[in-house]
Amino acid sequence: MSNLKIEETDLLCKKGCGFYGNPAWQGYCSKCWKELKHNKDDKISLKFDPKTTLQQQQQQQPSSTQQQHSLLRKSKIIPSIFGKSLSKLLLLLIFSYSSPKYHDQQSHSHRHQQSKPRSTTTRQSSEESQKVGKELVDYLRSLDMKEIMINIPKQVKGVIEKLYQMSLGNSPVDELSEMLSTFYQLMNDNMTSKHLYKAEEAEELLNLCERYVLTRLYSHLFSPSVTDDEQLDLKLQARIRSLHWISVHLLDVVLNESIDGVREHVESAITAIIEMNAKRCPQDKLECVVKCSKHIFEALKFSKNEPASADEFLPALIYIVLKANPPLLESNIQFITRFTNPTRLMTGEAGYYFTNLCCAVAFIKSLTHESLNLPESEFNRYMNGEITAHDPHISRTCEGLKLMEKNEKTLMEVKSGQEALMAEMLQMQQDMIDFKTSFHSQLTSLKMRAPLKIKPRRKKVDLDADDDSKVLQLPPPLQPQV
């Protein structure tokens, strides 16, 4: 039985700033880690300036950039003349605009394929990127500010082009992360200093910009070739597979999977953590982590019949990760750590659960016999498959038999319900027969007590009618006496 207990203070930054730390940053938060890196290496100074980026593009590609600059200048006056519909079209053109450098590189490397259609050498946006771009454009239009409608797309376009060129040049991933982090900070400072936005508007706008940039560049930033993320994924997956024998009993997890409600929440938590790999932007990946964590808390609540504590959460999360063995878990964690807005991981619900996930992965990597309070010989026998762990709370029945038992229980409940319904129907039928008999009996008794006498129907007398029989019955008329 393990003594894995981590207080919330253990998850905070080692510097004591109050934000959540991260094992990838050696226990520091993103802010303190950045300051530490800058103090160690003053040469790292990656400041992103959209104006500088656009000027560089203008020097290298005057015709294409001048065309884009012309569209930007025209979009300043078109809304006041023609309304917002054309402004929306211009913004869509800005977001869908392809990299001029990319066209030059492709045309240079494929000069012998000039006969092929141009569409084969252009970088097309995915359907998801176009959807997120439309959401950003619609939100910009809802703010109804000309300055915002021009500057924000220009900055987003600039950072996308710069990151794309750096990824093609196999730049270190730390430089890409630093540039994107600086972009978030500059945008936040710009929106805060001008006081043009409400707090919720600035947060939503920065969120949409982050979502669009990372969705657009997902294939270039997720597990880039310059890193060893792929090897780490395979190593972690093999490590988790070798620890398949670890049960809730060895981790001291209060999960009773023999309860249907607990089992359902455990399965939902496993599904949520696996779905993280199918998401493209860090916000959606973090949402999967939050969803998984909430299902774990519900499973613990069902097992104990009372709310679970934070100390019980981490061992349960470790158990879920071991049972799920999520695909590309290391790459997903690194993608979130490197490229999401650092403030998202420093505080809040998502930051807390993500920090716990990083701690769970770190525990799995360094797990030894001492972590589980097992003798080394017994631990080695588990690892070699010589013995299997026994959990008294979980029966060794296979999943197929468990499903059959559950279905049998459901059928018995349905049968009991049908029998109760049939009994009610028979009782209702008997009640109707008894009512009919009682009604006839009461009606007969009433007829005997008070028989109904029917009098002849009265007829109208017609004085003008000629009826000889009645006239003959009249006495003779009186004769006058003289």
TrEMBL record:
What Pfam families does this protein's entry cite? DUF5601 (PF18151), VPS9 (PF02204), zf-A20 (PF01754)
Per its UniProt entry, which superkingdom is the organism in? Eukaryota
**One example of a Gene Ontology biological process annotation:** vesicle-mediated transport
Q: Does the keyword Metal-binding apply?
A: yes
**What are the GO cellular component annotations?**
cytosol; endocytic vesicle
**Ranges for domain A20-type:** 7-41
Q: Which GO terms describe its molecular function?
A: DNA binding; guanyl-nucleotide exchange factor activity; small GTPase binding; zinc ion binding
Kindly give the InterPro entries that the UniProt entry links to this protein.
DUF5601, VPS9, Vps9-like, VPS9_dom_sf, Znf_A20
Q: Which UniProt keywords apply?
A: Metal-binding, Zinc, Zinc-finger
Residue ranges, annotated region (Disordered)? 104-132, 457-482
Q: By its UniProt entry, which SMART domains does this protein fall under? A: VPS9, ZnF_A20
Which intervals hold domain VPS9?
230-373
Name recorded for this polypeptide: Rab5 GDP/GTP exchange factor
Which organism is this protein's natural source?
Helobdella robusta (Californian leech)
Lineage, top ranks: Eukaryota, Metazoa, Spiralia, Lophotrochozoa, Annelida
